């Protein structure tokens, strides 16, 4: 984890969480992210997490843990890729519902 500036203040920034393929689906990522959230909440630190639309399982996990997809970057600037990301995620969700 590193720190990024938010309005001139350094805040924790979680880039990506990854688990080796042979160790996936064992709750390791959930435990790791849960621990990071607990530590940052105990320190009363805001959190910002990066991900990408192709990480559908990770996005689902992050949302279950209370993270939300937002249209802005850490400084409140509009993310020009947000509409496309929402479209991709909506298509993935629709496909999952149809299976």
- The helix count comes to 3
Output the CATH topology: Aminopeptidase
- The average pLDDT score comes to 82
Percentage beta strand: 5-15%
Q: How many strand units?
A: 3
Order of helices and strands: EEHEHH
Which quaternary structure do these chains form? single chain
CATH architecture: 3-Layer(aba) Sandwich
Shape: flat
Number of domains: 1
Walk across the major sheet and give the strand order.
1-2-3
Structural class: alpha+beta
> What is the radius of gyration?
15 Å
Q: Which percent bin holds the helix content? A: 40-55%
What is the C-level CATH assignment?
Answer: Alpha Beta
Main sheet, how many strands, which sense, barrel?
3 strands, mixed
Distance between the termini: 36 Å
Supply the key terms.
99 residues; alpha+beta; 3 helices; 41% helix; flat
Structure description:
The protein is an alpha+beta fold and 99 residues long. The chain has one domain: Aminopeptidase, CATH 3.40.630. It has three helices and three strands; from the N terminus they run ββαβαα. It has a three-stranded mixed β-sheet, with no helix packed on it. The chain starts with a strand and ends with a helix. The model has no long low-confidence stretch (mean pLDDT 82).
């Amino acid at each position: 984890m590193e720190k990024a500036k938010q309005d001139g203040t350094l805040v924790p920034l979680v880039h990506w969480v990854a688990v080796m393929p042979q160790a996936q689906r064992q709750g390791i990522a959930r435990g790791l992210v849960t621990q990071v959230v607990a530590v940052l909440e105990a320190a009363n630190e805001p959190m910002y997490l990066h991900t990408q639309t192709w990480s559908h399982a990770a996005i689902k996990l992050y949302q279950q843990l209370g993270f939300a997809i937002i249209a802005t970057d850490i400084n409140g600037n509009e993310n020009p890729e947000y509409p496309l990301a929402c479209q991709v995620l909506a298509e993935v969700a629709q496909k999952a519902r149809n299976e």
